[in-house]
DNA sequence: TTGAAAGCGCTAACAG
DNA sequence: CTGTTAGCGCTTTCAA
C-alpha cells in the first residue's frame, strides 16, 4: 500500500507535485507530470480515501433512508438513485429505517459524524422537529416524502393529483361507492393521496365510507387480507382505490380465488406501475410515478447543496403522475383526466 | 463542529483522556470520565469518522456488489444484508454492476482506495483472474455466486441440488420432456442448476432438449417472451424449469392469456420463493433459498476477516435449498426428494 | 513551475 | 490514572 510519499520519492519530486498531478492542477510541467504518472503506475498507487476525506472535509458518500428495500417502489428508487450517484462519482449508503423512529434517528448520526456528505430522506418516521436539528450538520433532501414546513429541498410527486385521477377514473366508470386503501399512517404521501381521493368523491357528490377504508396495507399479503375484510362488509363498495400495485394484486388474486369477477364485482386501481400490473388477469390500472427522474433530480440537488455548502433553504420540485388505464377498472380506454 | 480538542479544553483535560472515554478504555477515573462526558454533551460533540478511519485504517463500511436491486432476489438479499450490517455497526454501500465487467472492476477500486473495509460479491462478471489481484487490498467474500478456484471465503447455496429437486419433482409428475430456462450466461449459479437439471434427467433416462433451452430470462417480460418461443416449438415440452419466480410468473401469465391451462398444458417450476408465487392461479411451485441466513453468514465472515486481517483463504459455507410444492406443477403434494 | 511545512481530527506509544 | 508527542495520508498556503 504505497503512499503519496512513496510516489514522490520514486519520481524524485515533492509530495506537492504528486498531489497536483492527482488533482489535475495546472502549473505542472508535462515532463514532471509524466514522471509522476509513471511512478504512480509502477507502484500501483491509489490515493487513500480516508486521508482525502479528512483533508477535504468531504467523503463523496451519500446516505439514503427508506423503510425497506423489498418494497418494489423503494427497490426501484434505490436502483435509480444508485445509478444517478455512481454517474456522479458518489457512493450510496442504504439505510433501512424499518419504519422505526429510533433507527431513523440513529442513522442520522452519519451526518453528524461526517461519514456521509448528505442524507436523502425518502421516508419519514419522526416529526420534523426531531429531524430539523440535523440540518446543521449537512444537507438533508426530502425525496418522495415531504413536509410542508421544512426548510430543505423537496423533490416530490403530486400525490394529491395521483389520488384524484385514479378516483375520478373509477367514478367515470360509474362507481358511486369506492373503498380506500393505503399503507402507512404518518406518511404525508398517503395523506395527500387521500386528499385527492376525497376531492374526487366530493366533486361527484359522493361520500367517504370510513368502514371501507383500510390504512395498513403494504404488500400482497395485506391485499389478500383487505379483500376478506372488504368482502365481510355489510355494505360493500363496488370499487377499491389502493396505494400500491402489490396490494391491488393481492386483492385481485384473492377475489378471483373466491369466485369474484374483476372488474365487474370489484374494480381495483393500483399505484406505482410495477411489473406486477401486467401479470395478472385482468391487468391492473395504476398510477405511474416518475421514480427515475425524481431520483436523478434529488441527486443533482444534493450535490449542488454539498458544493455550495449552503443548505437549509426550502425549494420544491414537483413531478407529475400519470394514470395508466388497464383492465382491472373496466378497461374502457377513456380519455385521461 | 467541535473537535476532541474543544472537548479536552472545556473539560480541562488532555485529548488523550477524552479519546479514552470515547473508546471506553480502562484507566480513566470515574470523576474525570464524568467531566469529559459532560463536556461532550455540552458541545454536542461527535467524533469525526474520517479522522478515525485515517487513524485506525478502517472505515466500518462494506460494499456489496449485485447486478441490480430491482431483481427481487437481490432486493431480498440487500434487505437482509443491510439488517445484518447495521446490527454489527457497519454501513453498507450498494454497488450495481449492471452486468457490466468494467463497472465491476471500477467498483473494486473502493477496496484499493480504502473507502471500504471489504467487498461482498453476490454476482460475478469478470473472470476470477481479473478479480483476484484485488484480494491484496482487503477481504473479498463471495456470497451466492462462487468460483471453484478462488482463495476466498464463499457462502453459497447448493444450486445443483436445487436444480435437481425441482426437476426430479417434474419427472415424478410424469413429465418426460422438460424445457430449461435460466438467466445469465457466465454465472456459475446457472451452470450448477443446469448440472442438477441434467442429472435428474439422466437418472430418469431423459435427454436435454437444447431447442427447449432459454438462457436469457431474468424477469416477467422475459417469461412472456419465453412462453411464445416455447409455444412456437415444433416439439413442445410438457414442463418447464425456470431460474426465477418472475420468469415462471411471466410464462404462466402469458400461457393463460393464450388459453393454455396450467399445469395440464404446461407445468412450470420457479425459483426463489418470492411473494409473487402465491399471487397467480395456479400458485407456483418453487425452490426456497435461505437468503437471510446466507446474508448473515456473509457478514459475520466478512467482519471476522476484517478483524483478523488475514484474508485470502478458501473456506466454503453451504446452505441447503428446499422445494416448495404448489399448484403450477400439478399440486399433488408428493413427498419431498 | 516547484517545494517546505502546517494541519485536517483522531489514537497510541511512551513517559510519568 | 493522565499527558506529551508523533504520526495516519493528503492538500494547500506561502515562499522561492
Notes on the protein architecture:
Two copies of one chain form a homodimer. By secondary structure, chain A is of the alpha/beta class. Among the domains of chain A are: 1-45, lambda repressor-like DNA-binding domains (434 Repressor (Amino-terminal Domain)); 159-289 and 323-329, Rossmann fold, CATH 3.40.50. In chain A, 42% of the residues lie in helices and 14% in strands. Chain A contains twelve helices and twelve strands. Chain A has helices at 4-11, 15-22, 30-43, 49-56, 72-87, 101-112, 128-131, 159-172, 188-203, 220-231, 245-257, 291-308; strands at residues 61-66, 91-96, 118-121, 140-143, 153-157, 178-181, 213-214, 239-241, 267-269, 286-288, 315-319, 322-324. Chain A has a six-stranded parallel beta sheet, with helices on both faces. In chain A, strands 7-6-8-9 form a four-stranded parallel beta sheet, sandwiched between helices. In chain A, strands 10-12 form a two-stranded antiparallel ribbon. The longest helix of chain A has 18 residues, at 291-308. Chains A and B meet through helix 4, helix 5, strand 2, helix 6 and helix 11 of A and helix 4, helix 5, strand 2, helix 6 and helix 11 of B. Chain A binds a DNA duplex (16 and 16 nucleotides) through residues 3-5, 13-17, 19-20, 22-23, 26-29, 32, 47-48, 50-57.
Main sheet of chain A, how many strands, which sense, barrel?
Answer: 6 strands, parallel
Low-pLDDT residue spans of chain A = 332-337
- What fraction of residues of chain A sit in β-strands? 5-15%
- Tell me what the CATH architecture of the domain at 159-289 and 323-329 in chain A is: 3-Layer(aba) Sandwich
Protein name (chains A, B): LacI family transcriptional regulator
GO molecular function, one term (chains A, B): DNA-binding transcription factor activity
Domain HTH lacI-type (chains A, B): 2-56
InterPro entries (chains A, B): HTH_LacI, LacI/GalR-like_sensor, Lambda_DNA-bd_dom_sf, Peripla_BP_I
Amino acid at each position: 500500500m504505497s503512499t503519496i510519499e512513496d510516489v514522490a520519492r520514486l519520481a524524485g519530486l515533492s509530495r506537492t507535485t504528486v498531489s497536483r498531478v492527482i488533482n489535475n492542477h495546472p502549473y505542472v510541467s508535462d515532463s514532471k507530470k509524466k514522471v509522476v504518472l509513471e511512478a504512480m503506475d509502477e507502484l500501483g498507487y491509489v490515493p487513500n480515501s480516508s486521508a482525502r476525506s479528512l483533508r477535504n472535509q468531504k467523503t463523496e458518500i451519500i446516505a439514503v433512508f427508506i423503510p425497506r428495500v423489498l418494497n418494489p417502489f423503494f427497490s426501484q428508487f434505490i436502483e435509480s438513485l444508485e445509478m444517478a450517484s455512481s454517474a456522479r462519482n458518489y457512493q450510496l449508503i442504504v439505510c433501512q429505517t424499518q419504519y422505526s423512529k429510533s433507527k431513523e434517528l440513529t442513522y442520522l448520526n452519519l451526518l453528524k459524524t461526517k461519514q456521509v456528505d448528505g442524507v436523502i430522506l425518502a421516508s419519514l418516521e419522526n416529526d420534523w422537529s426531531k429531524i430539523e436539528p440535523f440540518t446543521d450538520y449537512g444537507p438533508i433532501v426530502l425525496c418522495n416524502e415531504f413536509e410542508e414546513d421544512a426548510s430543505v429541498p423537496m423533490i416530490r410527486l403530486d400525490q394529491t393529483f395521483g389520488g384524484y385521477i385514479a378516483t375520478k377514473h373509477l367514478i367515470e366508470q360509474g362507481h358511486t361507492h369506492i373503498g380506500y386503501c393505503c399503507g402507512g399512517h404518518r406518511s404525508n404521501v398517503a395523506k395527500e393521496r387521500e386528499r385527492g381521493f376525497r376531492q374526487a368523491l366530493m366533486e361527484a357528490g359522493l361520500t367517504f365510507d370510513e368502514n371501507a377504508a383500510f390504512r395498513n396495507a403494504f404488500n400482497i399479503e395485506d391485499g389478500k387480507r383487505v379483500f376478506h375484510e372488504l368482502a365481510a362488509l355489510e355494505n360493500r363498495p363496488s370499487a377499491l382505490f389502493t396505494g400500491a400495485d402489490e396490494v391491488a394484486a393481492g386483492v385481485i388474486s384473492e377475489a378471483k380465488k373466491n369466485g369474484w369477477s374483476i372488474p365487474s364485482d370489484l374494480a381495483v386501481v393500483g399505484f406505482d406501475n410495477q411489473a406486477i400490473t401486467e401479470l395478472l388477469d385482468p391487468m391492473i390500472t395504476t398510477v405511474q410515478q416518475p421514480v427515475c427522474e425524481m431520483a436523478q433530480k434529488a441527486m443533482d440537488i444534493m450535490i449542488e447543496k454539498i458544493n455550495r455548502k449552503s443548505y437549509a433553504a426550502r425549494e420544491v420540485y414537483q413531478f407529475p403522475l400519470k394514470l395508466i388505464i388497464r383492465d382491472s377498472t373496466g378497461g374502457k380506454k377513456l380519455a385521461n383526466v
